[in-house]
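pasting for the record
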Amino acid sequence: MSESEHRMIEILRVLAKQDKPTGSKLIADELKEKGFNLGERAVRYHMQILDEKGYTEKKGYSGRVITDLGREKLEKGLIYDQVDFIYSKFEEMIYLTDFLYMEQKGNVVVNTSTIYNEESINIMKEIFESGLSVSPYVNINEDKKTGEIEVTTICGTTIDGVLLNEGIATQPQYGGLLKIENSQPVNFTEIISYKKTSVTPLDAFANSNLTSVLDVITKGSGIIPANFRLIPGIAKDKTLNIIHNLDKIGIGGVIGISEEGKDLLGLPVPDGMVGIAIIGGITPFCAIKELGEEIDIKIAEEIRNFNTLKPITSKIYSPLTAPSIEKQPKLPFLLSKSWNLIQQVDFNAQKQKGNIVANVSYVNRNNLDEALEIMEDAYNSNPKYINPYYKLIDHPKDDNMIGIATICSLSIDGILIKNGIMSNPKYSGLLELSEPPLFIDLISYNGTTLDPHKIFLSKNMTSITSDDHPSKILASVKEIPYITRDQAVELLNMLDNIGFSIYKIGKPRELVYNSKVDNYNFGVITGGGLNSIGAIREKGINIEVKAIETLLPFEEMNRL
């Protein structure tokens, strides 16, 4: 992407934040704060281009507004930058928090979510009473015409902002899922790094299939969303005092604070630092999702004055005890868990024999014929993007279930490495088959413990079988040293002819489908091994999705 395009994306970002037409002077001032030295004249020039493309619209002498097409461009047009933007957005929210907690005045960071059933308000109140929230302070605004109810709640990032105002630098590290047993926090089971994703970590986990907030409330055991950050060890006592004072005015949610340099809930804490775990501000909304209610959750989207929020309840009890002090196994990132499987791939492309890495997902035997038919239809409709190979495998425990094994894209890394070509799995993403195709979400393999493709499937983000609009499919980005390019291209073309899903072989420094690799490398885009499984899910068949499960001989696989 050129520098000019980058500037236009930043102009769109400025306009997207405004709720009224905005002139070139304000835009130039905003851009200057972001490090873009662009005068009003240059801004007007770029705005004319944006008008011509339909991304902005002029409103008389008042200025311009962003259009729906412009918002769509903003979401998709700079996805490699969005991976960095998520973290910078949280830094911006932290900086803009000016809440004076002793006076209960100033701005806090909020999550604004939309619910569509008035009964959800009563459910939500019970969740807040349970204490599984950052704060009972909310703002509820109902649109009588549409029936939509906007609910604003305080985000845990507010605590980071308060600490920064007191001279304590926090470092947001991960958003994840926290296991609770007998009302005691035990360990994080899944995490995503804030610095290596285009998807806000807790948004990735805000799914009824992943959380069990209601079980924590009713049974004392389950899974809740939580965040993890670090502070300098020397600031621990001051931080504890601030957290105590915040708790007294109704802003809390702190689950645990580590000793200096001691692991907390299975996550490492470097020497000289202290770890802090805080309950996810979206926890009450996850509970509503678990009940099957429709809800649109937006995380850390804006700053709101604390005075606009009121307690939804005064009855609050804390269901959680102090965290377990037992040392938990360290939580390995996905790529760390995968390297041993990659290392064992010994597929020979000339002989078309040898082991590949396979995903194994499980479906009821009664639905098997229909599932295979859906897979075949998906492949025939788009053979370039769907891998045709599969193998049926017995379930290890349940005779009523049967496994459908598909080729995992990490097999391609193993094949390249076996042939002396270093291949590094960089990102797992959601690819929109526009013209040209573009990634609309990316999560680093080395920044998550859960396969991103499982996340995209669990949130119903794919549209593999849809004909109404550009399909959204699962794809991966691999990074390969440029010096090996000739040999790699020859081998990749051979794999493509066999049926492995090779979508695109990039050039050095090229943004491949809007994804970025390091200098002196080139990117390769490959298909996700779960695309055919995603097609089954889209057709309403219940299938237990598994990823990166085992090794299988390629020659034993069937072809659709």
